[in-house]
Design goal:
The complex is a heterodimer of chains A (about 475) and B (about 475). Chain A has about 475 residues and is α+β, with helices and mostly antiparallel strands. Chain A folds into 3 domains: about 290 residues, no CATH class; about 100 residues, no CATH class; about 60 residues, Arc Repressor Mutant, subunit A (Orthogonal Bundle). Chain A has 17 helices and 16 strands. In chain A, the strands form 4 sheets. A 9-stranded mixed sheet of chain A has the order 2-6-7-10-1-11-12-13-14. Chain A has a 3-stranded antiparallel sheet with strand order 5-4-15, with no helix packed on it. A two-stranded antiparallel sheet of chain A has the order 3-16. In chain A, a hairpin with a 4-residue loop joins β13 and β14. In chain A, α16 crosses α17. In chain A, about 40% of the residues are buried. The mean pLDDT of chain A is about 95. Among the domains of chain B are: about 240 residues, Amidase signature (AS) domain (Amidase signature (AS) enzymes); about 70 residues, no CATH class. Classes of the chains: A alpha+beta (about 475), B alpha/beta (about 475).
Chain lengths: ~475, ~475
């Protein structure tokens, strides 16, 4: 009997406003504990929240990028629970009336193109952090994160395995980066995913009892955690047992799941509308203006790259990994007029140089116009492929225009038959043995002789012409 | 010169409070040596020179209810949990009073976290009524009302969630105004029930209470529920001609059981209004009987959430415990019985399975109550007139063990908070030597109408005794 996993995700994404949601304090990762705080995010008596509208704008972009229906009025609610890093004793979130519902994300899953439905997207504030290893015998509280703006994205249970989850999250992350709402850094906690997982017989309509996996902080972690949990559920059921509804915490160091104590999960959050905040109102004009301002999303862009530039599926996918990367490619392709050559140069030598220099494409030292110049020079035979790569490096290291570098250093290929014939004659004279052996049938020695001519020309000779000249002399 | 004015004010209060007729009205008095630098003094010299409108409270003594955050003085809310707590920021209303040149004399006593109607729920002992020291001053702003009534200060700020300004004003024989919800910033007012709380003003005269309200009213970007709307000229409305003003008398506020002396006093006030040219009309607010049950679900529900922050983790009292849960329990054990009662009621009203039955039903009742006001005011009524309280000041200790009878002392005031409309209490005479207050309610954003009517009553009824 085959069992089918069913997985839904709850993803928390930090919005990159750089400010807290309700007090405007700095919200930056990794600063000294309790330095980015004020009466509001400390929950001091008498302090009141006021909404940072920029966070709402980013949440709106998120909702539209995930194809959701945005509600013109959404309502803030208090989620009440006691925890030392929750300063007010409640979290401000949205419950009954979230910002958006009913979205859809398409990604390439294990079974091909797959759609995940988005149930809802709402805004909320983050809690602080409890630090258990900083003060001996006590828990330290850092409230720098308290009040950081989040969107929570809740999917329908449309994912069918750990591999799907990873592929979906990769796609989601790419979309969020495209629309520039979050830096999506899982290690710094700016993208966190909890998973609900159950199993059912293949073809069954009803869902099995689910468990919830929390505390995962990497894509590989979530893949591993889900793999283990699905195996555990299957083993339980095969042994005649039943899956119990529970919350499991992922331990990243030991790579195992442990059940949360029942005390930790028996919360009654006593939600009610927050009387301190009027509903968030996003008018239709703002929704439409935001929709119009969204960039082309990765999937659409990859499709266009295939259609417009004739790129392969693979190339189109690689070149649309990031929005600045795709912009870079397009700038090069338009300037060169040969998209395939542009794609090869961006993915090949340019990418290799970026890796070497540890630069991302948005800060890469070689401007798209410079790379385009190099591609054109190689394309029309002015310089060789190898010299092109050297020029690329020179531009990165010293700056300057490729055309001028080629001219000033005399790097242009020599193509006139007289010069080439002279170098060829010299090489034939210098290597009589090799010439004989070549003529005797050792065809591979042609490469050696071409190399010697190139060397003599200090790399400037057009290798194709050298090749032709040598053959006509030796074969003729 | 003004430094000595503050010193004189503080010293005279200190002396009076230490004497045989002390009222326990203050929880803290200003230190004229250290608190003077904060602004009141700095500008009052200018005010002395030109007496300009920018410093409208120059030299005026003002007391602040101790649930308003202040920089110089502790902010305890009458609670053990905030004993000695000092706020690193000040309430917007406090800043405005200070910048208007007032002399801030001190912080006044209150029921713990403003929960109560007698000031007996203060962790620092009850305040006594200056008219009869065996009786309560009302609450929860009892310290502010008593301080004004006793002449300790000329004006005071309080807060009114269900009647906490109007009821003590009535019981102490002073004027108390609760403005429209959203008229005054709540930033720095320690929250009890956020959708009902509003800062209010006390004065011995309508003019004083109105003047103080003019100073503190107006939009504050730090309070998302404060409204961007022009503040009507209140002191300018004091001499408004009452001819043709339609005064509604809601039947529901004059029940059979009403104290007969209160009825006599209110009847006389109504006659005075009629004689002055007002058109008096009988009206109905049919859902008023829902107000007390509705209020005692919603206010505790919000309070249970607002008071969660007093957990001992960051500030205020922290009791020791073996683990975090025990620390919470032992810390929060120091709330007084009324605060605990409301936290329990509120937690229950919001809990799964009871939420719709209590919180949900109360929200519906609230909408019906607000609808009553809307209908009456849309029907051509300019203001409403009612008794402020069902009876005069009651003896200390009489109701402390009977929460329901205590809750019913707010029966005439809570509707205004639930609907958000402005209301005020104005003295309309005395019963057996104790003050009686009449309540005037106006449509949203029309405080000037009730101030005008209150001034009329003040002119006609001062000194009347039953």
């Amino acid at each position: 009997m085959t069992w089918q996993p069913v997985i839904g995700l709850e993803i928390h994404v930090q919005l990159r406003t750089g400010r807290k949601l309700f007090c405007g304090d700095r919200a930056v990762f990794g600063e000294e504990p309790n330095t980015n705080v004020c009466p509001v995010c400390l929950g001091l008596p008498g302090a009141l929240p006021t909404l940072d509208r920029d966070a709402a704008r980013l949440a709106l972009r998120t909702a539209l990028a995930l194809d959701c229906a945005v509600h013109e009025t959404s309502v803030w609610a208090r989620k009440n629970y006691f925890y030392p890093d929750l300063p007010k004793g409640y979290q401000i979130t949205q419950l009954d009336r979230p910002l958006a519902t009913g979205g859809r994300v398409v990604f390439d899953g294990e079974g091909g193109e797959t759609a995940v439905r988005i149930r809802r997207i709402h805004m909320e504030e983050d809690a602080g952090k409890s630090i258990h290893d900083r003060v001996q015998g006590a828990t330290a509280i850092d409230l720098n994160r308290a009040g950081t703006p989040l969107v929570e994205i809740v999917t329908e249970p449309d994912l069918q395995g750990p591999g799907d989850v990873r592929a979906f999250l990769t796609t989601l992350k790419r979309i969020l980066e495209y629309v520039d709402v979050s830096d999506c850094n899982m290690e710094e906690g700016s993208l966190r995913a909890d998973a609900n997982v159950s199993i059912r017989r293949e073809g069954a309509r009803t869902l099995g009892t689910k468990t919830e996996i929390k505390n995962v902080n990497s894509f590989s972690g979530i893949e591993k955690a889900l793999g283990l949990e699905i195996e555990r559920q299957m083993a339980t059921v095969r042994a005649g047992g039943e899956v119990r509804s529970e919350t499991l915490l992922w331990d990243d160091h030991r790579e195992m799941l442990r059940p949360m104590r029942s005390k930790e999960e028996s919360h009654d959050y006593r939600y009610f509308p927050d009387p301190d905040l009027p509903p968030l109102v996003v008018g239709a004009p703002e929704i439409e203006a935001t929709r119009a301002s969204l960039p082309e999303l990765p999937r659409a862009r990859a499709a266009r790259f295939r259609d417009e530039y004739g790129l392969s599926e693979y190339d189109a996918s690689v070149l649309t990994q990031s929005s600045p990367g795709a912009d870079y490619f397009e700038a090069v392709a338009r300037a060169v007029g040969d998209a395939k050559a542009a794609a090869n140069w961006v993915m090949g030598p340019a990418q290799a140089l970026m890796n070497e220099r540890r630069e991302s494409i948005d800060v890469f030292a070689v401007a798209p116009s410079s790379l385009a110049e190099i591609v054109v020079l190689v394309g029309d035979g002015t310089i060789s492929d190898g010299v092109g790569k050297d020029v690329l490096r020179m531009v990165a290291e010293q700056g300057g225009s490729p055309r001028r570098i080629v001219a000033e250093r005399g790097l242009a290929q020599v193509r006139d038959s007289e010069s080439i014939a002279a170098w060829v004659s010299a090489v034939i004279d210098d290597f009589p043995d090799e010439v004989d052996r070549y003529r005797g049938g050792e065809a591979r020695l042609l490469g050696f002789l071409v190399g010697q001519v190139m060397r003599r020309s200090e790399g400037r000779a057009d290798p194709r012409r050298v090749n032709d000249a040598l053959r006509s002399r030796l074969d003729g | 010169m003004t430094i000595s004015a503050l010193r004189a004010a503080v010293e005279s209060v200190r002396e009076a409070e230490a004497g045989p007729n002390g009222l326990n009205a203050f929880l803290a008095l200003a230190d004229p040596d250290t608190d003077s630098g904060r602004g009141a003094e700095g500008g009052s010299a200018q005010a002395g020179e030109d007496g300009d409108g920018g410093r409208v409270l120059a030299g005026v003594t003002v007391a602040l209810k101790d649930n308003l955050a202040t920089l110089d003085l502790p902010t305890t809310c009458g609670s053990r949990l905030l004993e000695g707590y000092r706020s690193p920021f000040e309430a917007t209303v406090v800043r405005r009073v200070r910048e208007a040149g007032a002399l801030i004399v001190g912080k006044t006593n209150l029921d713990e976290f403003a929960m109560g109607s007698s000031t007996e729920n203060s962790a620092y002992g009850p305040t006594l009524n200056p008219h009869d020291r065996t009786r309560v001053p009302g609450g929860s702003s009892g310290g502010s009302a008593a301080a004004v009534a006793a002449g300790y200060v000329r004006m005071a700020l309080g807060s009114d969630t269900g009647g906490s300004v109007r009821q003590p004003a009535a019981l102490c024989g002073v004027v108390g105004i609760k403005p429209t919800y959203g008229r005054v910033s709540r930033y720095g007012l320690v929250a009890f029930a956020s959708s009902l709380d509003q800062v209010g003003t006390f004065g011995r005269t309508v003019q004083d209470a109105a003047k103080l309200l003019e100073v503190v009213a107006g939009h504050d970007p730090r309070d998302a529920t404060s409204v961007v709307a022009p503040v009507p000229g209140l002191t300018a409305a004091l001499r408004r001609d009452p001819e043709g003003v339609v005064v509604g008398i809601p039947d529901e506020f004059f029940p059979e059981t009403l104290d007969s002396a209160i009825r006599v006093a209110t009847d006389r006030a109504v006659s005075a209004l009629r004689d002055a040219g007002c058109e008096v009309r009988s009206v109905s607010l049919p859902h008023s009987h829902l107000a007390i049950p509705c209020y005692y679900v919603l206010a505790p529900a919000e309070a249970s959430s607002n008071l969660a922050r007093y957990d001992g983790v960051r500030y205020g009292l922290r009791a020791r415990g073996r683990d975090i849960v025990e620390m919470y329990e032992r810390t929060r054990h120091h709330f007084g019985p009324e605060v605990k009662r409301r936290i329990i009621i509120g937690t229950y009203a919001l809990s799964a399975g009871y939420h719709d039955q209590y919180y949900g039903a109360a929200q519906k009742a609230r909408a019906l109550i607000a609808g009553d006001f809307r209908r009456v005011f849309a029907g051509g009524v300019d203001v409403l007139f009612t008794p402020a309280t069902p009876g005069p000041a009651f003896p200390i200790g009489e109701r402390v063990d009977d929460p329901l009878s205590m809750y019913l002392s707010d029966v005439f005031t809570v509707t205004a908070n639930l609907a958000g409309v402005p209301g005020m209490s104005v003295p309309i005479g005395k019963v057996r030597g104790l003050p009686v207050g009449g309540q005037i309610l106006a449509p949203w954003w029309h405080e000037e109408r009730m101030v005008a009517l209150a001034a009329l009553l003040e002119r006609g009824l001062v000194g009347v005794d039953t």
